[in-house]
Amino acid sequence: MVTPGHTWDGLTPVWGPFAFTGDTVFYADTGRDDLPTGNPIEHFESLQKLKALLGPEQIMLPGHDQEGGRISSWATQLRINPALGQSQEEYLNDGGAWVGRPPKLLKESLLHNFK
User: Fold this and answer.
1) Are residues 62 and 19 in contact, defined by beta-carbon separation less than 8 angstroms?
2) What are the backbone dihedrals phi and psi of residue 24, each rounded to the nearest 5 degrees, phi first?
3) Could you read off the pLDDT of 54-113 as tens digits, one per residue?
4) CATH 3.60.15.10: does it fit domain 14-113?
5) Burial category of 101 from C-beta neighbours within 10 Å (exposed 0-12, middle 13-18, buried 19 and up)
């Protein structure tokens, strides 16, 4: 599935019971939208698409996880991930309120990503 928002080229491959959500959906969180090509409105729409198309039994495999690689069922994410229960207005307010430093190697990553 094409799931832009975190970046313009976001994809969520679904293979059998597995959904590889990358940075679109983390364990109990979502990827940030303030990086180059990020778009919070598209990200919200991608979350809605995933909610409509993934079954509760799907096994969600995120791109990374602050706690070290947790996986879960989609049903668990629907229960514990605040972003998946927000209205568009709430999602945009939360995402827009986030303030943080760019990733440490952002410039180097961008050079490789946009070659």
Assistant:
1) no
2) -70, -45
3) 999 999 999 877 777 788 999 999 999 999 999 999 999 887 555 667 667 767 766 766
4) yes
5) exposed
List of residues 6+ apart from 2 with CB closer than 8 A: 10, 11, 46
What torsion, rounded to 10 degrees, do the Cα atoms 52, 34, 27, 29 define? -70
Give the gyration radius of the chain's Cα atoms. 14
The b-or-e profile of 49-84 (16+ CB within 10 A means b, else e) is ebeeebeeebebbbeeeeeeeeebbbebbbeebebb
| Residue 17: exposure state from Cβ atoms within 10 A (0-12, 13-18, ≥19) | exposed
CB 73 within 8 A of CB 59: yes
Reported pTM: 0.84
Q: Give the separation between CA 58 and CA 53, rounded to whole angstroms.
A: 10
